[in-house]
Amino acid sequence: MSSDSLRIIQILLLCACSAFAASDVDWWESATLYQIYPRSFMDSDGDGVGDLNGITSRLAFLKEIGVTATWLSPIFESPMADMGYDVTNFTKVDPLFGTMEDFDAMLAKAHELGLKIILDFVPNHSSDQCEWFQKSIRREDGYDDFYIWDDGKIDPQTGVRIPPSNWNSEFNGSAWSWNEQRQQYYFHWFLVEQPDLNLRSPMVHQHLIDIMKFWLARGVDAFRIDAVPHFFEMRLANGTYPDEPVSGFTNDTNSNRYYSHIYTFNQPENLEILYEWREFLDEYQRQHGGDTRAMVAEAYATADILSDYISNGTHFGTQLPMNFNFISLRSNMNAKDIERFANSWMDVIWTKHKTANWVFGNHDNSRPATRIGEKRADMMTIIAHALPGTSVTYYGDEIGMTDYDTKCTPSNCDFRDPVRTPLQWSSAKNGGFSTGNSTWLPVNSNFKTLNVQRQRGVARSTLNIYKGMTALKKTLAFKSYKEEGGFAYEALTEQVFQIIRTAPKLEEYRVLANFGRQIEYLYGLTNKTMEYVLLNAYSPHRFGDKVDLSKRITLMPYEAVVLRWVA
Ligand code: NOJ
Ligand code: MG
To answer: Which ligand is nearest to the CA of 125?
Structure first.
């Protein structure tokens, strides 16, 4: 065994001893969350599509890499027009992924290993094949206003019927589609196949609560709530929907960006429903005991809006509105950008609520290794885990997977396919993901060199850095972040980012990451002598080396390290 590998084991042991000492931190407050895209994680039956049994067979991997909880993108019955975000039955597992028994077995195994399971909850819309929508088309009892229906308007010039408003859908084109059978338009923010539920209907509320109850009763630990900013759209007192103003961003009148979404995005009523669900989940916990049933919310919104998602002072909502600031980092980023994006969360949300989370990737956005750069993938891992709060990792990013041009044809293409390719487990056939003859998306051609198995054996691989960081995240210094002086971060230069994590009077960790192509010199950072406990492949140092930080220190291009001082 190399001395590097020995050192990593030492860190892991050391961390295990001081783990969970900061007991005032609830599980979701300092968690390592991991997103599984079920189609692409692990295929157990050789059909080329990932499934629940596949996930069960790899839960030990999540444990190995220090994950606290994993959220699964939708596993529910769906025609897959939007890969499961178009649900026909919210309490049924799609046969593609397995059966309810498979689900129960997965959950039981996860709990046995001490892992929490977070399910995706899609309350904004259903599939157009959903029984509710079919009933709504037929105006069946109670279902009449289950979705957002309208007659539309008559164009005064042409006499032709036109949609009720100029609203364009996220995937472009009118957000209103005509339904022949009901002879009305229905509203869909996303695809034509994804009609929006009418969240103003009390019956819809009841159905949504029932879905949560169903999964909670099976033992699900938390929910990730899809598309929160899109819950409500402006409806005037006279029942009409106002046109949105032109944004000036594009000349394409079909484009979603053609209009400024002042009536279809982040409406204040969105908060009320989050508060309602929080009350329900807290009450559920009071009645049934167990850990906090948290809500993770997907919302691309400003910190001020997300702050109210957590609480407006009188009501409480979602504990974890996802912080997508780092999703906008591109290859031209530097340490100042990290500082600016971190501040934009911390100055507002940390100041008010003492909570933070850091998302670096998901199934809708280019992967960090591609977006920000392969040489910086490790730094992103280090920063995501060293900043105070909860880290959120998209499957595959723990080994630095890259976007893969899947060469899809226009008819069966999703612009997000490149970030959804199968997890690269090993250099075996299909990257060890499936024994089938083909996989639903091709495995990235770099799988022979970039895979889990190979990175396990390389001391400074992205995977081992990930493991080192999740272990550090369990130390007192990383957990006690709510205490005075528990953390600090700063761009020391344009390219060097520093994070300090402290358990006062006990120990201190210092992250130094050089994002640039140049050697950087730093002077007199502190009077402490510290030890290198984690190093990326660009560092010339060795685990256990000591460095006197009162003197000049050097960071090589792309070097990232964690230093440790013990009282
Ligand atoms: C957000 C999800 O992340 C995305 O994948 C999906 O297409 C939309 N919501 C619609 O559900
Ligand atoms: Mg399968």
So the answer is: 1
Atom of ligand 1 minimally distant from the CA of 82: 7
What residues contact residue 428 under an 8 Å CB cut-off, 6+ apart?
none
Q: What is the full DSSP assignment across 112-166?
A: HTT-EEEEEE--SB--TTSHHHHHHHTT-TTTTTSB-EE--EE-TTT--EE-SS-
Buried b vs exposed e over 500-537: b needs ≥16 C-beta within 10 Å? bbbbeeebbbbbbbbbbeeebebeebeeeebebbbbbe
pLDDT score recorded for residue 178: 98
Q: Please list, in sequence order, all residues whose beta carbon lies within 8 angstroms of the beta carbon of residue 217, skipping any fewer than 6 positions away.
A: none
Which regions in the chain score pLDDT beneath 70? 1-23, 410-411
- Cα–Cα dist 78/120, whole Å: 13
Active site residue 298: yes
- Model-level pTM? 0.95
Which residues are in the CB-under-5-Å shell of ion ligand 2?
Answer: 43, 45, 47, 49, 51
Distance 231 CA to ligand 1 centre (A): 13
Q: Where do the domains of the chain lie? A: 484-566
The two three-digit tokens of residue 9, written as one number: 């084991």
Residues in the ligand 1 pocket, defined by CB under 6 Å: 82, 85, 122, 190, 226-227, 298, 363-364
Is 226 known to be catalytic?
yes
Are the C-beta atoms of residues 496 and 512 closer than 8 Å to each other?
Answer: yes
- 322/168 Cα distance (integer angstroms): 25
Q: How far is the CA of 297 from the centre of ligand 2 (A)?
A: 28
The SS3 call for residue 195 is: coil
Give me the catalytic one of 29, 226, 417, 508.
Answer: 226
pLDDT, tens only, 445-471: 999 999 999 999 999 999 999 999 999
What whole-number distance in Å separates Cα of residue 241 and Cα of residue 183?
18
Query: What does the pLDDT read at residue 23?
Result: 56
User: If you measure from the C-alpha of residue 227 to the centroid of ligand 1, how many angstroms do you get, rounded to a whole number?
Assistant: 7
Q: Diameter of the chain by CA atoms?
A: 81
Which residue is associated with the tokens 């029932």? 210
Helix or strand (DSSP H, E) at 514: strand 507-514
pLDDT of residue 383: 97
**Is CATH 2.60.40.1180 what the domain over 484-566 is classified as, yes or no?**
yes
Phi, psi angles (nearest 5°) of residue 104:
-60, -40
Q: Which ligand is nearest to the CA of 102?
A: 2
Sequence-separated (6 or more) residues with CB below 8 Å from residue 56: 44, 102, 105, 106, 109
Cα 433 to averaged position of ligand 2 atoms, centre (Å): 10
